[in-house]
Amino acid sequence: MEFESYDDAYNYYNCYAKELGFAIRVKSSWTKRNSKEKRGAVLCCNCEGFKTIKEATSRRKETRTGCLAMIRLRLVESNRWRVDEVKLEHNHLFDLERAQNSKSHKKMDSSTKRKLEPALDVEVKTIKLYRTPIIHHGNSNSNDGEIGNHIDQFKRLMLDRSDLDVIHAYFSRIQLMNPNFVYLMDFNDDGILRNVFWIDSRSRAAFRYFNDVVAFDTACLLNEYEIPLFTFVGVNHHGESILLGCGLLADDSQETYIWLFRAWLTCMSGRPPQTIVTDYSKALQSAISEVFPRAHHRLSLSLVIQSILERLGEFHELEEFGNVLHRIVYGSLKVDEFETAWEEMIQHFGVTDNEWLQSLFDDRERWAPVYLKDIFFAGMLSFSPLFEGYVHKQTSLKEFFHMYDLVLQKKYQKEADDDIVSADSNPILKTRCYYELQLSRIYTKEIFEKFQDEVEMMSSCFGITQIHANGPIITYIVKEHENEGDMREIGNFEVVYDKTGAEVRCICNCFNFKGYLCRHALCVLNYNGMEEIPFQYILSRWRKDFKRFYVADMGSNNVDITNPVQWFDHLYRKALQVVEEGMISQDHYMVAWQAFKESLNKVRLVADKHV
Fold first, then answer.
1. Tens of pLDDT along 33-43?
2. By C-alpha distance, which of 227, 225, 234 is closest to 199?
3. Contact in structure between 180 and 207 (CB atoms under 8 Å)
4. Cβ proximity of 152 and 188 under 8 Å
5. CB count, 10 Å around CB of 87?
6. Of the four listed, 31, 129, 435, 479, which is most buried by Cβ atoms within 10 Å?
7. Which residues, including other chains, have CB under 8 Å from residue 185's CB and lie 6 or more apart?
8. pTM (2 decimals)?
9. What tens digit of pLDDT does each residue of 305-320 get?
């Protein structure tokens, strides 16, 4: 979209804002070097940002909410003003009365209103569908002579015109099918594309149910794949990975990650993950601390071990070292055990001077399981790439978008199939333990089978001994045969049980790591006469009877009843919820179909009254 002048562009956005019920202001603008001629600007919602420390002492009411809605304008060679970037989502309600009295709308003269308002009906709808900006990519005009721009050119996506066409075609197509699809683009001051992020309504809604732990996968970026892909990945009620957003990044700098995390957080209605698991990166660590200060940031255990073995690639005892490392990391139950065994390992193999090993050991509280027992991971101490087997080092952007929908549809179909199997199946019980029967009725098939293994292995536990008591809190040692082939190998597991709240915690920490109780904790519950697993250890995230509507939830209270586009979005979401329910069974389908027919007849009656 282009305008004849800056004033035309400003007035257009101002009219659009007034129509919806918000005000605007100029966030920033820039001129050509040694000239007062304006060449770019960012216009934003006046709720952007927050008060400064000085302003915070003012008695004036706080009106800023950190809103990210904005447009970026740039003067192009044709001497016209082009819209380079549009962000339309607001994080606050619209206020038509307040907007009418804002400075930006008060100074709008009548001639401007007459000139621009007739076009709003058509163009506002186009903008609200996140119209893709026209992007010219290539060498920018170097006559500006700005050193900052010369440095910034390295922070850009290495895409050619055909790549941009592929992105544009995909975004345009998907928005016709999915009105709640959102994408955000990050440009430098010269309009060069640096980063792209997109997310659909299913991913946004799924995050409502599965926001306890999220993996941020940057393997393609860090390993210099043809496409610098990143993904946000969660785990669903079947223990399968699900997509929670993805995109392309120009680099792995702190600045880039901060932009991305803020964009993602905005799409998730400001709700951060409880735990985020990533690769080892100081830039990532700093960005997460700034954007998700309350989230637990931990490192993928598999990636840490992989990086250690890769760094020691020339080491002649690598296989033996790997076995020892694996035993120490996964087998240590106490901190002092881990630290003593680590020191013995690096001494034995002569790698005490390895700086990489030392840096990882210094950061051990972010990845070693023995330090992570207070954090819930839902089985995601480690994670695999969501597009593993589909995206390779030489995969082109065109090839990626060609397979993208196919991969996701395959995952959606598997989840639907798993839902049906879990709902209809009656698992074969392998023991007489009531705990097994209890969860066979509640959990999805995949999660129940993992729990069932723990119930079966209760038979390997013996010799429950009380070693300490402090009122209702009792500590036990549960002995276990750790190797079926050698009954002499016995493990001792400390389990704490609180009679008051029926709370149990094992030193192996299976519940926080995997989301279900271990055999040692089950033995102690049984020993204390608990006939059922306490309710706090039955998680709704694993239940097969929990209704999950993968449609972004925005209640009617957030709908601007004067805005036809928001009518569409709201009705579309509600209709999809009926469709989800209608797919449960043939009876549900018939009820939903009848409801649609009756609703359509009622709506037509309203239309007839206005004829």
1. 777 788 899 99
2. 234
3. no
4. yes
5. 20
6. 435
7. 85, 133, 193, 195, 196, 197
8. 0.69
9. 999 998 887 778 889 9
